[in-house]
Design brief:
alpha/beta; 13 helices; about 25% helix
Amino acid sequence: MDLISELPDPILQHILSFLPIKQIVQATILSKRWSHLWFTFPSFEFDTNFFQFEPNLLETKQSAENKRLQLINFVEQTLKQLKCLRKFTLHTDFPGPNSATVVDQWIDYVLKNGVGELEIVVTVENGKRYNLPQRVFANQSLTVLTVGDCKLCPPFEGLKLLSMKRVSLLGVFAEDEIVKRLVSNCPLIEHIKLNSCLGLRSLWLCETNELITMEVQNNSGLYEIGIEAMNLQAFEFRGQFQPCCINISSCKNLKTLKLSMVAIKDDWFHDCISEFPLLEMLALSYCHMLESLRISSPHLKKFILCGCESVTRVHIDTPCLSVLEFSGDVISFSLNAPALSQANVELSPRIFDNPWFVKQIEFLAHFNHLKVLTLQSRTGKTVTVPQELRETFASPLYGVKHLKLKIIKPLFSPSLKDLVEALLWIAPQPDTITIESGFGKKILKFVYEKATNIAVHHCCCASLPITCWKHSLKELKFENIREDEEINNLKNFFHENAELCCII
């Protein structure tokens, strides 16, 4: 016997857990020792690739189909002999006329084995929906249930899932009453996910007192949802730009709220936010009917505003806010957030002209007190403030110590030297500048003379409370900048503009 086979069962099972399912099957066929492990393996995951075979040049389609049928038979024989099973996952498309019967039998085997986590994503008989057996909803060992591309059918009377804590419905067909019955039959349910479901119209979930998180995403036709869950801490709703009445006002303990592509208006938003005194995380994305936001929240720690094109004014009064992410065009902005330590800003102008750059300078000045600021740009051109404006306005981020620039399309960006020069005007005395793109992450590290060694401010930084990099730089270090041309251009730039001692 080989040395690996002499290892204890738990270690061998851990090794098997890293292998694709087909390789595990091959190992169990070659060795009785591994075959023994197979029947005590705690988790079985079969995906579509497991059952599919592409015939090679020497095989016919019928030969490949026979191999697939052999695998189906192998799985069935294995499930009959299982001794312990924690999780069973099946993702597949069975085209045969008896495919629904096969899946029914497999589900029976794993339910009798006391499976705790069941994940079934199946289409049968040329794309038809598989009807999930009612006996699944009478099983007392299930704690996690994920159903995809299937159909849930009544009745659910008298069925109780007393151990169920997590339910995910993905692309299923299920009407409102079915989902309400399912949830009401899970008294300990903590997590619900409804994604791309059909048949939902007006869904109200009441007395779900143990519910902690709920995700509702891309459910076409859903125009109304209400949740009464006193312990709900996280709610995420992603719509399809269609009106939907959302009632979660009774969820007083909500800490995380994410709304995306929802047709909500200012009044609804402000009324909604006022109901959640414990809110810590708020994310709004692509809510195109919002125009003016007032956010006053004593516990809010993270705020994300992304792609809400109609928003023109934002007032933020949040003493605990530490992280802010913004994506969109320059807007009227008021910020009172003394604890803010980092921000991620992506400005997407419709027109590049001097008036826009003036607005950008004024906008960025709100983040001057931060230690870390990340700017994101498609090409990097949004940070290249025109020279005539640099001579007129003061640098907006003279207090920022770590400035990062993320470029989405680096092939269309200015040179590295031009980007560095532009960023050093925006933040004139940074400790680090990081430029990240598809070509990697390039870093510049700066060391400055102590303030006591600097005699006077120079004219280029007379309007600032600090001396800029040109007159205080002592040492400069490059990291991950490997192209000789870029290094030489940077060295020439700093030698021409700074009174520094050393470049590393």
